[in-house]
Amino acid sequence: MRDAAFLAGVLIVDGSDRKPSLLDQVIDGLANGLLWIVEAAPVWTGRGTRKPCIVCRLKIQASETQFDVPGPRGALPTHVKCYAVWWEQSQMLRKDLP
To answer: Which of 36, 44, 60, 98 keeps 20 to 30 A from 78, CA to CA?
Structure first.
């Protein structure tokens, strides 16, 4: 049986103990429906509110910048670096849509 590890809110079942990259987390989130293809700019930008980032699941500290990204479940918080990867992956996927 494979070992499972829970790192930064992401279940790893490939037997490795590596932490998934932001790109891995975005691709996984898009595949499992947690994330959606981003179509609009953030609706709010400001200091972190200690809510968990929708991408990496880590709390966004007050010393960090938080984006609230609009989507089908309302505007959800993300780190700037997580949003950048999510936005880029969304743009790539959007090109592939009919």
So the answer is: 98
Structural domains of the chain, count = 1
Q: Which domain holds residue 48?
A: 19-96
Q: How far apart are CA 14 and CA 51, in angstroms?
A: 29
Domain contains 8: no
In a domain, 12, yes or no: no
Helix, coil or strand: residue 57: coil
Tokens encoding 8: 């930064």
In a domain, 28, yes or no: yes
Q: Which two tokens stand for residue 75?
A: 């505007």
pLDDT in tens, 16-45: 677 899 999 999 999 999 999 998 888 999
Q: What backbone torsions phi and psi does residue 2 show, to the nearest 5 degrees? A: -75, 150
pTM of the model: 0.78
